[in-house]
Amino acid sequence: MMQDQTELKENSTMKRITWAAVILSAGVLAAATMFSESARSDDKSAALYKQKCASCHGADGKGETPAGKAMKVGSFASPETAKMSDDDLAGIIANGKGKMPKYGASLKPEEIKAMVSYIRTLAK
Predict the structure, then answer these.
(1) How many domains does the chain contain in total?
(2) Is 96 left (phi over 0), alpha (psi -120 to 50) or beta?
(3) Is 85 contained in some domain?
(4) CA-CA distance, 77 to 83, in Å (whole number)?
(5) What CATH number should be reported for the domain holding residue 48?
(6) Is the pLDDT of residue 5 over 80?
(7) Cα 45 from chain centroid?
């Protein structure tokens, strides 16, 4: 009788440990997936920025390229740009500004949103 109770307690403990391991593993897998998707999105935004924006705004976003100086583009780190909302920046990307071309027809809304996030990282 005593041995049966000990076995039941051991089985119950093992079940709890197993479930805890399953839940912990699922959480780790979910976090790794989100990190991986975020990294891919960042890589894609960086490549898109390099392709479409860096020739004027510069790799660092300061606008200190020959084309950037000629068109008087501002730095993403400037107080004026920092004050702008994400929607304002997305609107500029989509609709252009001054001599900057419009990208609303060639970029998806989620790409524009990701580009705004990437630009914010350059402001640091």
Answers:
(1) 1
(2) left
(3) yes
(4) 10
(5) 1.10.760.10
(6) no
(7) 8
